[in-house]
Recover the amino acids of this structure.
């Protein structure tokens, strides 16, 4: 049988096994420290051991590994300490009387059997000491500094809890110091290997990013490569970019990031807010080894323990921040800060080049778009059509969920919706109004300045509708003669942004719309001026006609006395008893015919000169036409006239004097029948026409008769003008007067032999 190993041999064997294990993990310093903690407890015959490693700056250490303490005792210690054991940081001070501080700064081993009173460097130390004594039987504490030779930097401490209260013998002490020196050297070599490896990785990352910048000018593509490369070399779980918005006061998460799958919430941050905001505000890198010790830390990821922020700058102006977060304490070092600084510089140059390239490309594209927009807008002189064309072109050319134009209502002091288009347009009421005192649109209406918000959720001016998922909003003022008359508003979904070139394009479009509206307004004013002149001329003509009619009526009344006298004579002669019945009947017949003729003439003259008044009531003109057709059915049948009806189904009711308008329709219909002595067709057409801002109902009577000569068309509405053999020339004049009292007019279009069309225009809404 093999004999048992001597204590010294057992130590050496355990030392050899530990050394071999540490060699296999030489690339991983953290694993080496865990192996050391467990191995040193066996080699140096301790009840428990702890490895404390230095964390920059010097004097700050972190408990990296513990061995020999059962899981049932760790919660007790952690409760007393108020923190976890592994991962906890302790700050040493050279002038603080404490065994661990002395061992660290004096680089010598220290042995104690009682924790000194009054040492407050380690909160809860007395309780920890008592717990170790009671639970593990520890009677002494031995601290060994991790140094290879006197004067070298201390990499940390090995703290041993021993059952024996006796100090180590000279041989044990010499053995322990030799053992610790060798372990320290292995750790140091592992650190050097790790640092070299990381530097090589950093060089590879920089080379990769440089190649990406050369191969493409697309910033988003480069950003993807940067983020993925940094994630490979940094000890972290989250890497992202935050870019400044257009106003330059908000840090927005770029779509390219790693870590969102962990539940990270990257909400927008203002300058000075959180670690990222502080780095952006100062323009300097910011490394925090323990974010939970930061009072203004903004929690985005619950498991974050350390964070690194490096600003991206162009010409001294911060345009973004590279951000990395780790679940480990002190996960980042000076090399990481240096690496991200170089990457930030590369990104800044790439971004500037990409911005210039993209801006130029967008400007070129937008010129073509604006040209097409201008052509469409300039194609109409109707203000409403101008506004609708603008928003339709905007949503057709750009990815807008909404494009709308709202004009200022001077009377109510708010913005009123005039035109809207886009995929979300149906979710906005067509009569939507917004106070000038509210929202981004109100701000633009008040100030006359363009306002762009690429993250509306953090914008103080934003006022959105509940059902709309607006992410970005751009509002441009519409100005006429330097005065704001309304706004052009565009919206995009979350994640989308308005570029500088896009903002410039929309400002140009707003100028085009304002100019087109100005032209349309001038045209409308000109049309209204011409119409007023025509009305004045027509009124003058009608006044002259009425004056002539008055004179004519007077002369006719004077002349009527002669026929009346003749009628009287006929009646007198007919009254003689000596006359035969046949002769008497003839006299009576002559008198009756003359009386009827005179009565009809006088009635028409009175209707023309003093048309009867009537109440205006909402009337279905289609139905009124049908009533007139019924009245004239006999005439239509006798004259072999076929009627074709082309009625607009959605014709709104028109407020008219029903009997008067019926008289007009009947007169035009009978005139059409008389114009077709050999039969023909009569087409009745109803519809709507926009006359400036007024909607007019149009009723057309189109016949296939003889037509009207060009010279006669200008006279048909004059009193006593007629082309009929027995006509009085008052029917059309009376009809025109009735329509004119309704605020409308009658137009005639004809050519000899091609029939004639009389169109009656009546306002839908009475002013």
């Amino acid at each position: 049988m093999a004999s048992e190993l001597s204590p010294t041999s057992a130590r050496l064997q355990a030392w050899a096994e530990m050394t071999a294990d540490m060699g296999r993990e030489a690339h991983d310093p953290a694993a080496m420290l865990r192996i050391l903690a467990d191995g040193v407890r066996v080699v140096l015959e301790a009840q428990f051991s702890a490895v404390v490693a230095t964390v920059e700056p010097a004097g700050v250490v972190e408990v990296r590994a513990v061995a020999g303490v059962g899981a049932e005792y760790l919660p007790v210690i952690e409760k007393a300490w108020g923190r976890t054991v592994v991962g906890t940081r302790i700050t040493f001070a050279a002038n603080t009387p404490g065994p661990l501080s002395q061992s660290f700064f004096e680089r010598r081993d220290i042995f104690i059997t009682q924790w000194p009173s009054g040492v407050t460097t380690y909160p809860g130390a007395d309780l920890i000491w008592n717990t170790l004594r009671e639970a593990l039987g520890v009677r002494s504490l031995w601290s060994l500094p991790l140094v290879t030779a006197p004067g070298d930097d201390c990499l940390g401490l090995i703290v041993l809890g021993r059952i024996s209260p006796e100090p180590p013998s000279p041989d044990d002490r010499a053995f322990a110091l030799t053992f610790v020196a060798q372990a320290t050297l292995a750790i140091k070599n592992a650190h050097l290997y790790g640092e070299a490896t990381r530097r090589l990785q950093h060089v590879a990352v920089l080379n990769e990013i440089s190649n990406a910048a050369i191969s493409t000018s697309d910033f988003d593509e480069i950003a993807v490569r940067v983020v993925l490369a940094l994630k490979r070399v940094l000890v972290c779980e989250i890497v992202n970019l935050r870019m400044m918005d257009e106003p330059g006061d908000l840090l927005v998460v770029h779509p390219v990031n790693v870590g969102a799958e962990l539940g990270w919430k990257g909400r927008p941050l203002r300058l000075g807010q959180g670690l990222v905001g502080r780095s952006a505000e100062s323009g300097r890198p910011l490394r925090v080894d323990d974010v939970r010790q930061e009072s203004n830390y903004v929690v985005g990821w619950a498991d974050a323990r350390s964070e690194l922020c490096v600003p991206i700058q162009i010409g001294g102006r911060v345009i973004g921040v590279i951000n990395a977060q780790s679940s480990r304490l002190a996960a980042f070092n000076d090399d990481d800060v240096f690496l991200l600084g170089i990457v930030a510089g590369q990104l800044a140059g790439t971004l500037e080049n990409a911005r210039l390239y993209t801006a130029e490309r967008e400007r070129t594209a937008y010129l073509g778009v604006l040209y097409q927009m201008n052509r469409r807008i300039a194609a109409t002189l109707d203000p409403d059509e101008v506004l609708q064309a603008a928003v339709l072109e905007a949503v057709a050319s750009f990815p807008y969920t909404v494009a709308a134009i709202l004009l200022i209502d001077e009377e109510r002091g708010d913005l009123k919706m005039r035109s809207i288009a886009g995929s979300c347009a149906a979710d906005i009421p067509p009569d939507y109004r917004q106070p000038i005192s509210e929202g981004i649109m109100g701000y633009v209406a008040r100030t006359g300045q363009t306002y762009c918000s690429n993250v509306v959720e953090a914008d103080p001016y934003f006022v959105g509708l509940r059902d709309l998922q607006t992410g970005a909003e751009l509002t441009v003022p519409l100005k006429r003669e330097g005065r704001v008359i309304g706004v052009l508003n565009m919206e995009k979904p979350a994640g989308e942004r308005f570029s500088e070139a896009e903002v410039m394009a929309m400002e140009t479009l707003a100028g085009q719309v304002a100019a087109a509206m100005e032209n349309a307004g001038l045209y409308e004013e000109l049309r209204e001026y011409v119409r007023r002149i025509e009305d004045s001329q027509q009124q003058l003509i009608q006044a002259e006609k009425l004056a002539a009619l008055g004179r004519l009526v007077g002369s006719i009344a004077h002349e009527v006395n002669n026929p009346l006298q003749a009628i009287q004579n006929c009646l007198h002669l007919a009254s003689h008893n000596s006359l035969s019945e046949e002769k008497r009947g003839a006299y009576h017949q002559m008198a009756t015919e003359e009386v009827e003729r005179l009565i009809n003439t006088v009635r028409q003259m009175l209707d023309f000169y003093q048309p009867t008044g009537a109440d205006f009531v909402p009337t279905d003109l289609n139905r009124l036409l049908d009533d007139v057709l019924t009245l004239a059915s006999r005439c239509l049948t006798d004259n072999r006239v076929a009627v074709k009806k082309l009625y607009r189904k959605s014709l709104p009711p028109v407020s008219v004097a029903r009997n008067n308008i019926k008289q007009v329709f009947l007169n035009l219909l009978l005139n059409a029948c008389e114009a077709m002595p050999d039969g023909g067709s009569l087409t009745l057409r109803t519809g709507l026409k926009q006359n400036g801002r007024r909607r007019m109902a149009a009723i057309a009577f189109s016949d296939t008769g003889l037509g009207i000569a060009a010279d006669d068309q200008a006279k048909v509405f004059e009193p006593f003008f007629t082309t009929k053999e027995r006509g009085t020339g008052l029917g059309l004049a009376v009809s025109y007067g009735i329509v004119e009292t309704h605020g409308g007019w009658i137009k005639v279009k004809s050519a000899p032999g091609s029939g004639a069309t009389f169109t009656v225009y009546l306002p839908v809404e009475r002013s």
